[in-house]
């Protein structure tokens, strides 16, 4: 019952029609990306995720990772499955070829991350964060650091973590207090406490490479004074094997609503003043290096929304095709039918399909733009910068909505843990929070991204969207709404812009997704044959264009509302 | 931190301006309902819920009710708190005066149920279901049954349960198989298994009065053949005290996502062929009797949405007024502020306030109509019949949305169980499912309720709404949308009607709530002074009218979409 079937036809369709993966292989950097390779990865990753990771999803939730003074123990079976992941080389896809990676496009590894996240969202977090650490070292590390750390991070033999948050420094990273004191030998002594560190401690690898934001002595306040350090759990012996303990401890793990298999650690660095770190990048250049990691992570978190939505949709579909209950309303027969025949259940399922496909198209599209950015296409890079907050926020909002519909399709059984629908709902709820809350994403959109290149990045996107939306009246109207609201916000006060940020983010996300769904609809119409996959693609696209797009237009009023509507009353009134 | 403050000013305002509780006291049935009594109940119930029930909410979640072969044990402190509830007479409010009740209006007891649900949603379920059993006996029981069972149900010394569901009979009650065989002495032998029975077994009372739907021999198939039986856990001695065990067992309880303190029981009746039941109402008249219970329970479940939304809003507000993080965007000062000063946090809080107030107004309004129906006002009764699916579905949808916003306001801490925000989110998710899923409510609306009195009930409501919406352009437009869609659905095929049911239910709910918020806005403007409560009332009403109402208009396309959009593709395509 709790199985996962990789949506290979859908993934391939989006890679071909939205990412246009064939174009990538035209470039010598990605010359290996033949359609045979794409197929091999699609099928291999799907099989691996379904076979090795999906069966551990329930035990991961029920047993969870456990803390003891000796360390963190992952649930039964995780160690073996992680070993198979390393063994199969699944971690190496995007890693640089000089360090053992395959140098493949992010759009292709997105498929793998989607599969792993669908199969086991909590487990997949460790796989998601190591490539972010690789990116940070690739762009900001020294040659020696790369040689020393990257090969094992690329394979996943060691995992990487991101250490930003401290109790007083969450969204406000600049408030962090962890100290890094230079020792005169090129190393630093690290001391401080970090919270919410995903897989900060566990039993899956023989070393853990923490990337830690900290403040050097006399550094200025705020984000300007922050530097990034590489802080391993174990220092390395001369032969590169893990040696001396580096005074890095996991003090406790959090008791969370979901993703129980993923240990969320409170990490303590340098309790005994014996924690060594190495600077990555410039001193006081930590934020830049961290953004390299974060942008990658934000795209991946958006993809998690797709993953969990896909899994929930599959489960709900399976249940609705089996569960027999009630005769069809208005039918002459009083015979009970499977609930997929009831209109409202089918409405929920089609909505789940449409939202999941839309979020996937957006996430893959952004990954494909990143690949083009890597090839030197500055416009593509600028566009993905603009789209990153949309991928993260809308993708995760879709994850929450779709998993909630999944619970609802199951009826009373959806609330019982054994069906798994409840776990998806609980797991999904973290994704709008971490890697920058969705409110932070919305602020990033209206605060930094709308104004990129004086608004030209948005204008170019809207222009492409209009071209692709021809003939779709509600979508065209939504695009006009986006343009009007963006124009309004460009001249608004910061307060007004921030008040409108979230509704505007949703408006623009649905417009972009509507465009990508319209493109897919046309592509599906062009394809020969009338396979079931194509029939669903067309139906999901039509549902999105005919129902989700018009529904979203209702947000225009909120996106134009002034901050006065929020700040026009005394804060005390909220507690009255 | 995890406290609850009864929203007394708000509750009184809605009772006065929406329920118009003063009008009720003009009738001799409710002559006792003086404003002193209203105040005493508002304050007493609020204090009781906050003082006795709220402190048990966490332990209820963490420990939960536990099953053993000997029975079900509720969490520590529940027995004492339940005793205080009975002792304080809080169960007796609406009970008939002849049987120890106070005969007060449902609108007044709704305040008490709201308070109890906010304080401890899982616990409040036992308090919610006993009055439904009282209603069933009052309307359908014999005089002897009433004398025998009602006094202790009214006080809560014994609790009542509703037994509809069986594994194959959920939404389709007519598929149930539990048998009731007449013994020739006026009693029946009951045999069968029921699932999802809330508080079907526990340690809080010395008897449990199950109201059980079952099928007599030779009864026709489907709902027509169903009868209602009273089946106590213990038969009564001649002096009315609980005596011989009645062969009623709790076989197991479910492992649920939330409401852990509420045991959801699998009940087995007559394992040893020694379970006696008494017919309530006519043989094969069970559905009518059950609807008496269900309508009451549906209004109460809608109210649960209000309860949990209120609790989540209070928690989020408290957190947002304390948590310091980041400087305000665009501010000259780089000083970090409490997060309530950030626009997007304030947007979430105001949305939570507005949605909660709107759902409360709807729930109380429906309760007030029920009270008028009890006084013989047939129009009021017809209107509450129309509104019941809205109260249940929209109220619980609001509960889910608001508790989700509550998690989001807490940021990373919202996902950690210790803040309680996650519990509200998990608890709230049952309410769109039980007592008829929200999809069933939508089907009830378009299937039965729209056509009440040939559409005159809806027409009369829309006419009142239009009168109250004067000057509010988006609301007026939404009311027109409702009328247009209703007109369209009246002549649509059943399939089309069912496909549009849920979007239409939301459209109409928001229109009704918009109307009730507009009425409150006018009332607040008429009141002297500018207390913080009135300022928030006006701001919440404006937010609802200016943002929620326009947003909802976007659903019109979905409410007009034909079923072809759902059924136009092969079911197999959903699994492709």
TrEMBL record, chains A, B:
Catalytic activity annotation: 3-(methylsulfanyl)propanoyl-CoA + oxidized [electron-transfer flavoprotein] + H(+) = 3-(methylsulfanyl)acryloyl-CoA + reduced [electron-transfer flavoprotein]
Domain Acyl-CoA oxidase/dehydrogenase middle: 162-268
Annotated Acyl-CoA dehydrogenase/oxidase N-terminal domain residues: 67-157
SUPFAM superfamilies noted in UniProt: Acyl-CoA dehydrogenase C-terminal domain-like, Acyl-CoA dehydrogenase NM domain-like
Domain spans labelled Acyl-CoA dehydrogenase/oxidase C-terminal: 285-445
Family that this chain belongs to: Belongs to the acyl-CoA dehydrogenase family.
Chain's role: Involved in the assimilation of dimethylsulphoniopropionate (DMSP), an important compound in the fixation of carbon in marine phytoplankton, by mediating the conversion of 3-(methylthio)propanoyl-CoA (MMPA-CoA) to 3-(methylthio)acryloyl-CoA (MTA-CoA).
Name under which the protein is recorded: 3-methylmercaptopropionyl-CoA dehydrogenase
Annotated organism of origin: Allosphingosinicella humi
């Amino acid at each position: 019952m709790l199985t996962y079937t990789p949506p290979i036809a859908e993934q391939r369709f989006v890679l071909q029609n939205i990412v246009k993966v064939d174009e990538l292989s035209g470039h010598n950097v990605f010359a290996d990306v033949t359609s045979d390779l794409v197929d091999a990865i699609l099928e291999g990753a799907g099989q691996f995720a379904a076979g090795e990771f999906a069966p551990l999803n329930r035990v991961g939730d029920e047993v969870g990772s456990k803390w003891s003074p000796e360390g963190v123990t992952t649930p039964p079976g995780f160690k073996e499955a992680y070993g198979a992941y390393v063994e199969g080389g699944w971690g190496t896809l995007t890693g640089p070829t000089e360090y053992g990676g395959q140098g493949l496009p992010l759009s292709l590894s997105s498929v793998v991350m989607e599969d792993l996240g669908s199969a086991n969202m909590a487990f997949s977090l460790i796989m998601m964060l190591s490539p972010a650490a690789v990116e940070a070292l690739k762009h900001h590390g020294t040659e020696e650091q790369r040689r020393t750390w990257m090969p094992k991070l690329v394979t996943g033999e060691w995992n990487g973590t991101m250490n930003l948050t401290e109790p007083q420094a969450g969204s406000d990273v600049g408030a962090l207090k962890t100290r890094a004191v230079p020792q005169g030998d090129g190393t630093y002594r690290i001391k401080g406490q970090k919270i919410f560190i995903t897989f900060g401690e566990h039993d899956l690898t023989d070393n853990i490479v923490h990337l830690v934001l900290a403040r050097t002595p006399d550094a200025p306040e705020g984000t300007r004074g922050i530097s990034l350090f590489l802080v391993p759990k174990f220092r390395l012996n001369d032969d590169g094997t893990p040696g001396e303990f580096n005074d890095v401890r996991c003090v406790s793990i959090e008791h969370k609503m979901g993703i129980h298999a993923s240990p969320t650690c409170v990490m303590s660095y340098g309790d005994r003043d014996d924690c060594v770190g190495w600077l990555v990048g410039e001193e006081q250049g930590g934020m830049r290096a961290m953004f390299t990691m974060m942008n990658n992570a934000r795209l991946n978190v958006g993809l998690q929304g797709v993953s969990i939505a896909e899994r929930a949709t599959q489960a709900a579909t399976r249940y609705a095709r089996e569960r027999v209950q009630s005769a069809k309303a208005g039918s002459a027969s009083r015979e009970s039918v499977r609930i997929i025949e009831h209109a409202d259940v089918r409405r929920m399922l089609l909505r789940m399909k449409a939202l999941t496909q839309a979020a996937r198209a957006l996430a893959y599209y952004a990954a494909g733009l990143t690949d083009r950015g890597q090839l030197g296409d500055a416009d593509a890079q600028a566009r993905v910068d603009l789209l990153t907050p949309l991928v993260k926020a809308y993708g995760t909002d879709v994850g929450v909505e779709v998993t909630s519909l999944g619970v609802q399709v199951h009826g009373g059984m959806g609330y019982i843990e054994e069906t798994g629908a409840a776990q998806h709902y609980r797991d999904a709820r973290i994704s709008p929070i971490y890697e920058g809350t969705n409110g932070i994403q919305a602020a990033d959109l209206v605060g930094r991204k709308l104004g990129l290149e004086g608004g030209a990045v948005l204008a170019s996107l809207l222009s492409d969207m209009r071209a692709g939306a021809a003939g779709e009246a509600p979508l065209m109207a939504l695009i006009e709404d986006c343009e009007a609201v963006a124009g309004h916000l460009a001249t608004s006060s910061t307060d007004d812009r921030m008040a409108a940020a979230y509704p505007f983010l949703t408006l623009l996300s649905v417009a972009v997704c509507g465009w990508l769904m319209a493109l897919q609809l046309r592509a599906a119409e062009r394809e020969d044959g009338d396979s079931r996959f194509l029939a669903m693609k067309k139906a999901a696209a039509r549902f999105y264009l005919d129902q989700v797009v018009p529904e979203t237009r209702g947000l225009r009023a909120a996106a134009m509302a002034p901050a006065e509507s929020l700040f026009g009353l005394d804060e005390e009134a909220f507690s009255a």
